[in-house]
């Protein structure tokens, strides 16, 4: 199975029809998934531990957004989402730590989380960012780029 088949006949967020049968997008990764790599759209392979880290960052971002929406834990649904999302975030961060040094993983996790939460705060909650905040966020992004491009400690 090829991942692009799932794009042409989607059934749900995690299923697609390939040759009349349902399958998961993970099935389309084939040997790449079994060997700890995920196929990118350009055919290159991304280490699966970065996928775990991306899931951790996304879950942490959802949890922090729900934390703001929970109104200091007075609203039940956002509060439950906070607990679930942080559980998912720490679970996948833990898996990523099997392959990525803790300092690098935490720098990427927290840096991306900070930038994403600042953007969500601005767009969803109307929180303003002044020039020093924008410059600081740009420096965080710059630090992530430096780690990824030049560090021998980061796993590639």
Question: What's the SSE pattern?
Answer: HEEEHEEHHHH
What's the arrangement of strands in the largest beta sheet? 1-2-3
What does the largest sheet look like?
Answer: 3 strands, antiparallel
Helix percentage: 55-70%
- As for the number of domains, it is 2
Q: If you compute it from the alpha carbons, what radius of gyration comes out, rounded to the nearest whole angstrom?
A: 18 Å
The chain-level structural class is: mainly alpha
> Count of helical segments?
6
Q: Total strand count, please?
A: 5
User: N-to-C terminal Cα separation, in Å?
Assistant: 26 Å
The best one-word shape is globular
Percentage beta strand = 5-15%
Mean pLDDT comes to 81
The stretches of 5 or more residues where confidence is low (pLDDT under 50) are: 1-18, 22-34
How does the SSE layout of this entry go?
Blueprint: H1 3-8, E1 10-12, E2 15-18, E3 21-23, H2 30-34, E4 37-39, E5 45-47, H3 48-69, H4 76-96, H5 102-123, H6 131-150
Antiparallel strand pairs: 1-2, 2-3, 4-5
Q: Which key phrases capture this entry?
A:
disordered N terminus; globular; mainly alpha; two-stranded antiparallel ribbon
Description of the molecule:
This protein is mostly helical. It has two domains: 3-35, no CATH class; 47-150, no CATH class. The protein has helices at 3-8, 30-34, 48-69, 76-96, 102-123, 131-150; strands at 10-12, 15-18, 21-23, 37-39, 45-47. The protein has a three-stranded antiparallel β-sheet. It is globular and about 45 Å long. Mean pLDDT is 81; it is low at 1-18 and 22-34.
């Amino acid at each position: 199975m090829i991942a692009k088949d799932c794009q042409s006949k989607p059934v749900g967020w995690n299923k697609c029809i390939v040759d009349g049968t349902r399958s998961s997008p993970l099935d389309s990764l084939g040997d790449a998934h079994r060997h700890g790599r995920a196929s990118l759209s350009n055919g290159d392979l991304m280490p699966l531990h970065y996928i775990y880290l991306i899931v951790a960052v996304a879950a942490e971002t959802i949890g922090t957004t729900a934390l703001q929406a929970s109104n200091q834990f007075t609203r039940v649904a956002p509060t439950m989402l906070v607990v679930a999302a942080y559980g998912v975030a720490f679970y996948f961060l833990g898996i990523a730590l099997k392959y990525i040094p803790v300092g690098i993983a935490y720098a990427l996790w927290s840096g991306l989380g900070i930038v994403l939460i600042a953007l969500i705060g601005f767009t969803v909650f109307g929180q303003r960012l002044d020039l020093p905040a924008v410059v600081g966020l740009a420096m965080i992004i710059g630090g992530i780029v430096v780690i990824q491009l030049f560090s021998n400690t980061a796993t590639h």
